[in-house]
Design goal:
Order of helices and strands: HHEHEEEH
Low-confidence stretches: none
Keywords: ATP synthesis, Cell membrane, Hydrogen ion transport, Ion transport, Membrane, Transport
CATH architecture of the largest domain: 2-Layer Sandwich
Number of strands: 4
Membrane topology: Peripheral membrane protein
CATH topology of the largest domain: hypothetical protein PF0899 fold
Function: Component of the A-type ATP synthase that produces ATP from ADP in the presence of a proton gradient across the membrane.
Largest sheet: 4 strands, mixed
Strand content: 5-15%
Number of helices: 4
Subunit structure: Has multiple subunits with at least A(3), B(3), C, D, E, F, H, I and proteolipid K(x).
Strand order of the largest sheet: 2-1-3-4
Distance between the termini: 109 Å
Protein name: A-type ATP synthase subunit E 2
Helix content: over 70%
């Protein structure tokens, strides 16, 4: 019996050792699983945080693009309003030659050209429709210069020095362009009631 007791004792010790190894293995597995779960949660949190950042960046990018598109459209509308305003203005002044005040305006425009080219031998460039008014203005002012009927304009004139190095544009179109170039913001304010509409 001692032999059987010895075997039972060995089997019992082996069983205990086996159970202890299994318990230790289970504890290690549980620890590994907890650690893996913690790491998984951390990785998940990192990916979630990155996804949130990416969404915020994309949202901001989309907002920026939308704002740019709105600004572009507003700018196009403003430009169209300005273009329309200048077109209407040009239409209104296209018949200025028949206005009784045109000779006085033409004289003032001529004096400005002459003044801009003071000290130079002057050539006036006029529209053939203004030849009589130009002659009358030159007679009235006593200014002597060459006249070339070589431009087409709704009104006004331009002048050059004889060598062509100096030019003075004083047509109504050139004056409107100068106004357009220097007064766009003011025009927008008048049309829309402020720089931002």
């Amino acid at each position: 019996m001692a032999y059987e007791d010895l075997i039972k004792s060995i089997e019992s010790a082996a069983e205990e050792k086996k159970q202890e190894v299994l318990r230790n293995a289970e504890r290690e597995v549980e620890a590994i699983l907890r650690e893996a779960e913690t790491e998984s949660s951390a990785i998940h949190a990192q990916y979630l945080e990155k996804a949130k950042r990416d969404l915020i960046l994309e949202n901001n990018r989309q907002k920026f693009l939308a704002k740019q598109e709105v600004k572009k459209r507003i700018s196009a509308v403003r430009q169209k309003l300005i273009d329309d305003a200048f077109s209407r203005s040009k239409e209104k002044i296209s018949g200025i030659r028949s206005d009784p005040s045109y000779p006085a305006l033409y004289e003032r425009l001529t004096r400005e050209v002459i003044s801009a080219l003071a000290g130079e031998e002057i050539i006036l460039h006029i529209d053939p429709a203004d030849s009589k008014i130009c002659s009358d203005v030159l007679k009235k002012t006593g200014i002597v210069c060459d006249i070339m009927q070589d431009i087409t304009t709704i009104g006004g004139l331009s002048g050059t020095s004889a060598d062509g190095r100096i030019r003075a544009y004083n047509t109504l179109e050139s004056r409107m362009e100068r106004i357009r170039d220097t007064s766009t913001l003011e025009i927008i304010n008048l049309i829309l009631g402020g720089p931002d509409g």
